[in-house]
Amino acid sequence: MDKKQRATTPNRETRVVSSEVKSGADFGNPFLLADNKLPEDVKETDWFAVITKKTGMGDIRILRYAYETKSEAEEQVRALSVGKSIEDFDKVSFVINNGIPAQALEFFTGDNDAFHHACYNALVDCGVITKSFDTAKKVFEAFSSDEKAALESEYGEKWTVVLEAKYVLSRYHITSLAGYAVRIFYCFYILEDDYSVGYLWREMEMVLSQSEEIALKELERKKSSSEMAAKASRENKNRRIESMLSAMEEIVSENSVLKSITARQALVDLAVEKAVESDQKLWSQGQDQRDNYLSAMKTDKPFKERFEALGLK
């Protein structure tokens, strides 16, 4: 994997935990600003698609997307059904309008010296900034003059931070190293939110150290091992039933007296003894399950016909 791939490849999968439609009246408007005013693009009469998502092994977060009609919100909920991966939706939702829409603010809620180096490296590796830390030419060229003028007017000398964020998050996943870098810089330079910087930096550190990737692989390994152990246990059980039934068939063919119900326990004990002698390793466990094995012979399809053919009374 080259540097650009490392900087732009998703590192954590985001899946939908729940999704539902709600009206603004259900919980009050979730987009009220500090002065209790609504952003210009959100109305009190809006309907909301409320999406709960979980990324990797991280926290569960809630997204609320505003729509003018209930049918639009329902369409969004259908598109983001439970269990669905939403990495593509995450990638484009940031650039709904000029600037940062209220709908996307959730993405930006999450040692200042420590993170700068890693963030700059990620953005240099994917060509968003130059090695002298200037915004790359291709980033400027990706936006119209009006878009750039609007951002510069709103954010002043820090406007390129937002420009780089819009560029990266419209092209790469939010959990790519570049995605973390622009979100951290946005929280640091624009929001001046040290808490979110720390939160996002913690996640980025986990990606850089591959600790979450290692943990997820270990969980998958344990799950696979457990499934393999269960499968082996079932197979060994069937092998023991098979060997016990074969021993019963051999014993009954030599001594039909043992078909009597009064001799049933003696037949079972002799059969287990004979089966153990033939394969002690297989029978290192399970000898105390002979009654269960006998029940399986009477009901389970692979053994039932042969058991009935014994003619036990």
Topology:
Layout: H1 3-8, E1 14-23, H2 24-27, E2 47-55, E3 60-67, H3 70-79, H4 87-93, H5 112-125, H6 137-141, H7 145-155, H8 159-169, H9 177-191, H10 194-209, H11 211-254, H12 264-278, H13 290-299, H14 301-309
Antiparallel strand pairs: 1-2, 2-3
Helix pairs in contact: 5-9, 7-8, 8-9, 9-10, 11-12, 11-13, 13-14
Brief summary of the model shown:
By secondary structure, this protein is mainly alpha-helical. The protein has 14 helices and three strands. Strands 1-2-3 form a three-stranded antiparallel beta sheet.
3D architecture notes:
The protein is built from 14 helices and 3 strands. Strand 2 and strand 3 form a beta hairpin. The longest helix is centred in the C-terminal third of the chain and has 44 residues. Helix 9 packs antiparallel against helix 10 and helix 13 packs across helix 14. The chain is mostly helical. About 8% of the residues have low confidence. It has a 3-stranded antiparallel beta sheet. The chain folds into 2 domains: 207 residues, no CATH class; 84 residues, no CATH class.
